[in-house]
Specification:
- With 408 residues, this protein is of the alpha+beta class.
- It contains nine helices and nine strands.
- The chain is globular, with a radius of gyration of 22 Å.
- The protein starts with 8 loop residues before the first helix and ends with a helix.
Length: 408
């Protein structure tokens, strides 16, 4: 992917110095560009998530307010270099999520930190979740035999207008935090330390609105988004990798990302009553049209013909609430986005839909096929994203992302 920036000779040489330092052996006179903070014990600081564990953060923990989804194309050509890249990603994620004081700058070398967050890096509940795409398991690194059982490239559904440059990727980073600048700082740091090893394929930032007046956040269409999610008792059967996966994948989860444009100018021209019929929910309370608050169960049994909640309402198609569809529920982390103005002068706003599930086909894909042709499709258009496998967690300081995959 061509770089969109023009670097001066001086900055280019500085970059070469930093890149050379990454691969230099200790004592070779090169700057160690991955110096840790003064302390990386995340439990020492308020607002820090525990980086180590069976699962990665950024999946079942409460969603933070700000996010970045960044798809990366791997530029290295050998498995050894891929191993080194994943070690670097692990080290930077471990350091950044802990917060603390950046390492001191070396004389005549680029600054060790961008300075965007000041002299002390806040933890801000920062989580950095790494996932791998279907394309990583091609013939470059000899990993094809160890691909997750249900991983595949995302294909267009009937109502999609997918843009190839905004889809897929060898790797996907989900970076989330309580503050917007903490998210961007982490992304800049990671890209600096992996320069030349990865290229950004696409990225999209997002944010969560404050609940108004309470409960779940609202999307740009004015409705509460992400009300229904599985609880902890169902994570093993709905979120985490199943027994049919390779041994290395235990603790991971399939990640579906969808970039969804919302055509608010058209949406704002229809009545609230029609909007509620399209969603199947009351716009003010978020409750189903059959009654109750946002967490109330929709009454489909006494409404077989859709007189109250239309049979093609979004909530009814997405979750029919039958014994046969109970295992299709997904864990969702949706974020709004605002990209300014489209070429035609309309507002470029929408939703970053993220879901984690045990089986893409059984859950996400099945639900999306059921939603094809729904009335809401006239006001939204998915145009990007991809399918990924969120790697298992990192056990301890000696572990790193995908170690068990590379050793399989």
């Amino acid at each position: 992917m061509p770089c969109p920036f023009n670097f001066s000779r001086r900055s280019f040489l500085s970059g070469l110095a930093a890149s050379a330092a990454v691969g230099a052996a200790p004592g070779a006179g090169a700057e160690p560009t991955s110096l840790p903070l003064e302390s990386t014990d995340s439990l020492d600081r308020p607002g820090a998530l525990d980086f180590h564990g069976e699962h990665q953060q950024g999946i079942i923990n409460p969603p933070q307010k700000y996010s970045e989804i960044v798809a990366l194309d791997v530029q290295v050509k050998t498995k050894a270099r891929l191993d080194k890249l994943l070690r670097t990603l692990s080290e930077r994620a471990r350091i950044l999520t802990a917060g603390g004081t950046p390492a001191p700058d070396g004389i005549a070398y680029p600054a060790m930190d961008s300075g965007e967050l000041g002299p002390e890096l806040p933890a801000d509940h920062l989580s950095i979740t790494l996932a791998v795409g279907d394309s990583l398991f091609d013939d470059r690194f000899g990993l094809a035999a160890h691909k997750p059982a249900h991983l595949r490239a995302m294909e267009a559904f009937a109502d999609d207008s997918l843009q190839e440059e905004m889809c897929h990727g060898d790797l996907a980073l989900q970076i989330c935090a309580d503050e917007r600048d903490t998210v961007l700082h982490a992304l800049r740091d990671i890209l600096r330390h992996t320069r030349g090893d990865v290229a950004v394929r696409w990225r999209q930032n997002g944010y969560m609105n404050s609940p108004r007046p309470s409960g779940t956040q609202r999307n740009h269409l004015g409705f509460k988004d992400g009300i229904v999610n599985p609880g902890p008792d169902d994570y093993d059967s709905l979120v985490w990798a199943g027994s049919d996966e390779p041994a290395w994948a235990a603790g991971g989860s399939y990640m579906a990302v969808r970039l969804i444009a919302m055509y608010t100018e058209f949406w704002d021209r229809i009545s609230i009553a029609e909007q509620e019929q399209i969603f199947g929910r009351d716009r003010v309370t978020g409750g189903p049209l059959s009654g109750g608050d946002e967490h109330a169960e929709p009454d489909y049994l006494d409404d077989a013909t859709g007189d109250v909640i239309p049979t093609d309402a979004h909530i009814r198609l997405a979750n029919p609430r039958t014994p046969e569809t109970a295992d299709q529920l997904m864990l969702r982390r949706a974020y709004n986005y605002d990209n300014g103005v489209r070429d035609n002068g309309t507002l470029d706003v929408g939703l970053v839909f993220i879901s984690f599930q045990q089986d893409l086909e059984r859950q996400f894909i099945t639900v999306q096929k059921r939603l094809e042709g729904e009335p809401l499709a006239d006001y939204i258009r998915p145009y990007g994203g991809g399918y990924f496998f969120a790697l298992p967690g990192i056990a301890d300081e000696s572990d790193y992302f995908a170690r068990s995959l590379l050793e399989a």
